[in-house]
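Deliverable D2.4 — example input (structure tokens):
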């Protein structure tokens, strides 16, 4: 009879869960093989058998968090209308952070882990950032192609061409906005009760988002900064 498999997928997921909690609570430097094993109720040898060592476990924690985050963004409703789709990404972003705050902290808020792991490449190449940048590119392209009404609400702030620099700048501005909001929210620092936050978040994106995109297309060329309608 075959011997039972003790180092199985369930144990692997349990180790990842406990390692995620450890990194989210105390930072990447605090993660050890022995502590992760003890938290998961197993032995250090199981960690080595499943991951190969501490650094591989830490990378796996970040990779799993990023995969879950990417899946949430992929599931955001897509209508084909660039502005609505970009807003849906922003809503999905916050929802993931609230549903999985420890995974979110591992990805973005802990030195040595997630996108801040020493082996990670530039943030601009992280797949989830690319998703946001591409969505911004579509919004800027649609705005640039729209007929310009000098008396309309956009007036002289009609976006320029949707080049890569503008899209990256717009995506970075939107990321800063959403990241700042969700970190305040998961740390319990927002002043509004939970039932008000959904609407306030969407209102913030709708209000600040267009200005950030205008800044991305005009700010670098305008010494006085982006103009407001």
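Example output (designed residues):
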């Amino acid at each position: 009879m075959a011997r039972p498999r003790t180092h199985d997928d369930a144990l692997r997921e349990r180790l990842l869960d406990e390692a995620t909690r450890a990194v989210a609570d105390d930072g990447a430097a605090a993660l050890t093989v022995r502590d992760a094993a003890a938290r998961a109720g197993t032995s250090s040898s199981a960690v080595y058998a499943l991951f190969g060592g501490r650094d591989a476990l830490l990378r796996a924690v970040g990779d799993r968090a990023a995969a879950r985050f990417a899946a949430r963004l992929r599931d955001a409703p897509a209508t084909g209308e660039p502005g609505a789709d970009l807003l849906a990404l922003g809503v999905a972003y916050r929802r993931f952070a609230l549903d999985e705050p420890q995974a979110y902290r591992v990805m973005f808020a802990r030195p040595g882990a997630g996108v801040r792991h020493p082996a990670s490449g530039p943030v601009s190449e992280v797949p989830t950032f690319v998703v946001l940048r591409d969505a911004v590119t579509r919004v800027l392209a649609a705005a640039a192609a729209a007929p310009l009404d000098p008396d309309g609400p956009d007036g002289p702030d009609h976006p320029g061409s949707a080049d890569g620099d503008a899209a990256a700048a717009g995506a970075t501005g939107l990321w800063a906005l959403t990241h700042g909001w969700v970190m305040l929210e998961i740390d319990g620092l927002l002043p509004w009760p939970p039932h008000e936050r959904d609407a306030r978040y969407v209102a913030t994106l709708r209000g600040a988002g267009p200005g950030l995109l205008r800044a991305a297309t005009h700010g670098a060329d305008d010494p006085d900064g982006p103009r407001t309608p």
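The mean pLDDT is 88.
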